Amino acid sequence: MALIVKKFGGSSVKDAKHVFNVAEIVVEDYKKGNDVIVVVSAQGDTTDDLIEKAVEINPATPLKREMDMLLTAGEQISISLLAMAIDKLGCPVISLLGWQAGFSTDSHHTKARIKKINTERMKTELSKGNIIVVAGFQGLNKYDDLTTLGRGGSDTSAVAIAAAMSADRCQIYTDVDGVYTADPRKVKTAIKMDEITYEEMLELATLGAQVLNNRSVEMAKKYNVELEV
């Protein structure tokens, strides 16, 4: 039996069809006898839509604390819908917001950093036989205020869980089939790489490659988490 952490981006859960596709992938690994923790982002363009709503109210500078209160709603929708889909496929499941999964962060709203993860709740749910669906991108600060980790924060959430839980595998699902030497949608001759070092991936991510968030790569390197894209 292995502990597998899987992360799915917003495009992977953008509608009911895609949600069930993700649920089937998760259930397949679970039925092989594995423990599975799934981290998901907000559906499709939900985060951008919520930002637009905030700008409609205050085009200047919406309060960052309130932005975090607003944006965390996107992942809450995703995790509950995915949990419902997994349940419909006949497997035990529970969804957890970032703070319920034990994420403690600093107080830099909209770009918080993870300080620690209390893994007790996740370990308890796994011991019950549950698949766990965690809201990526979010946590709680020392004032019990919701925080978000910034763009690409769900990647960071997944890597952090994999490190804290000593997971056997951390899989990042994206809308391309791996890491290429260039953007395959723009460069026809781009070649998919079988593997890449943390340093090389960090350079690609820092220069704008959207396959992985650079902070997630930094964390993976620090805690020696092997990522499968």
Task: Explain what you see.
The protein is built from 7 helices and 10 strands. The protein is 39% helix and 18% strand.
Summarize the SSE layout with pairings:
Blueprint: E1 3-8, H1 16-30, E2 35-40, H2 46-57, H3 64-88, E3 93-96, E4 103-105, E5 114-117, H4 120-127, E6 131-135, E7 138-140, E8 146-148, H5 153-164, E9 169-173, H6 198-206, H7 214-222, E10 227-228
Parallel strand pairs: 1-2, 1-9, 2-6, 3-6, 9-10
Antiparallel strand pairs: 4-5, 7-8
In percent, how much strand structure appears in the residues? 15-25%
Spatial arrangement of strands, main beta sheet: 3-6-2-1-9-10
Shape summary? globular
The biggest beta sheet reads: 6 strands, parallel
From the structure above, extract its key features.
229 residues, alpha/beta, two-stranded antiparallel sheet, globular
What is this structure, in a nutshell?
This protein has helices at 16-30, 46-57, 64-88, 120-127, 153-164, 198-206, 214-222, and strands at residues 3-8, 35-40, 93-96, 103-105, 114-117, 131-135, 138-140, 146-148, 169-173, 227-228. With 229 residues, the protein is of the alpha/beta class.
